[in-house]
Known about the structure:
alpha/beta, eight-stranded parallel β-barrel, 19 helices, globular, binds iron/sulfur cluster
Amino acid sequence: MSYCDSRFHTVRRRTIEVKVGGVGVGGDNPIRVQSMTTSDTQDVAATVRQSIALAEVGCEIVRITAPNVAAARCLKEIRAQIDAAGFAHVPLVADIHFLPSAAMEAVEHVEKVRVNPGNYADKKKFAVREYSDADYDRELQRLHDAFSPLVRRAKELGRSLRIGTNHGSLSDRIMNRYGDTPLGMVESALEFLRIAESHGFNQLILSMKSSNPKVMIQAYRLLVERMQQEKMAYPLHLGVTEAGDGEDGRIKGAIGIGSLLLDGLGDTIRVSLTEDSVYEIPVARAIADKAMSLWSTRNPEPATRKPAHDSIDPYHFTRRETNLLCIGKNIMAGPEHPPRVITRVAVGELRNVAKTIRHPQLKDTPAEGLLVALDSVSELAGLPPSETAACVLELPAGLTIDELKIHASHLPAGAMLVRTFGPADAATLTNFAQFVRAQKLVLAAEIEPDFFSSLGETLRELGDANFVFSLSSRSRSAGHAIGAYRQLAEALRQIGSRAPIWIRNTPGTAVQGNNSFLSKLLEASFLTGALLCDGIGDFVSIETETDLVRATKLTYNLLQGAGSRISKTEFVACPSCGRTLFDLQTTTQRIRAQTGHLKGVKLAIMGCIVNGPGEMADADFGYVGGAPGKINLYVGKQCVQYNIPQAEADSRLIALIKEHGKWVDPEPAHA
Ligand code: SF4
């Protein structure tokens, strides 16, 4: 059984409709956009102000934390004031961790309650102990007793519930049996689902959040597969938690949410950013609109939905096996090498590029290949030599091998030549392959996967040497470029090819592109992120962005967001909420300013310990709110300094990094 109807088209998963107040989620409803307030919930005026501000920018569902019964009680007044201000149509959701008593209070006042199955009935100790089968059954009974009153009350009042699983806060019971895994996340939710169903309650939405897009994507896929097995069709709330801020936060959110939406999964989304929550809405709106544009226009008839086999295991990450290949003088791609970065430049700019690629901002993130589209092969004569980056030359459409041979002496050493081949081009393909091999060049062949039925045998005979494959537009039989690249990977597998694949982000691969930087970032995150999380991709270019420095930085940030190539400090920062114990935005910026040069170090900054220690599972160091004005410092999952005064926390964190041998002094320019 698969988790979606098609991995080549966006075929929306059918779910039941769940009502959150007057807002329908799932079913035939559009993707709902939501966010969360960050104020102290007991500061009613501030929480009302933030809720209205969110509604005014298009937030359709507003979540508010209820960390204790007193805060949950305030939801009554918050609801009343929001109604009085003319926003009665915007449903409110109470966010509950740990306290069933707070949930029981909140359900009286708001349209939906989110519970975390990892801590609703469990006193989380972040310690794993052994559970016998009998212990486990006793735990499940305890869970049933703790959760049932909320389910019954929600049913009486017509409320809905979200079973909101977080990778970072699984119960000790689940950790013991399934570990810190997507399967553990799914089982954690299923335990709660079964209890709700035992009461005949179905107004349920599910989420499987993680700060790691790969884990999050796998967990949602697995959840859907398991629900299908159990004939459950609940809507999904999608989100990447603790994504951070700025470009990095947007990229991580778009990779996780976009990959799933294009697979047809997801009914409501939240883009978590460590920024004022109103900034989340335009990003979420743009992601939702792009995904929904595929629902109406490109859904094929069922008979044509499955154009090819798909050998990728969508539940476990394995990088596609490829051959080693070198472009330019020494840019190696393939096994053991991270995806290489290619940046597009206009031919006329090439003379200035040498200076630009020495830009200080690109010191640790160089453009490794420079892609130039040639209008005429005669332009080869004027190409300046590139000392560092490899030359990637897009040849004019229809260029013959004889025309190319006339100018062969001008081809830069190790250049990668890009040429498109149609279904009748077997002889041309052979000529080009023989030419590049004789000249010690590389051929990036743009071949639609559908054409492998005509060209596959030729490609099989030619073998992989000096070949790269790429696509700069959707194929005819795929609904989106992710599907086209999956078709390409499968077509290569079927002819036994291990040639590297180059992911090209172009106007032709976009779902619904426009010229804004946000749109370019989201489109590139969808395509590149989804493919990298599938294990596909040895070269990446973002050709929609024309500024060389921005395009190159964006590509590296995207590779880092997908966990494919680490080029700077990785920050895992929670978006903050009413539980936050310090100012997350300024703290994140301050810590980034001091540690942003520590390439490869992963730092977690968490407003409280609800999700903190767990979400920091693979962080090297953690800075976590322990109590008002007090910080706990972590090394890995281990808390090593408790309740230190916040004023000392930065220097103590740096001392800790030094103690563990991960510190280097910043270069003068950075300092
Ligand atoms: S980790 Fe951050 S967002 Fe999550 S509950 Fe704590 S303060 Fe709120």
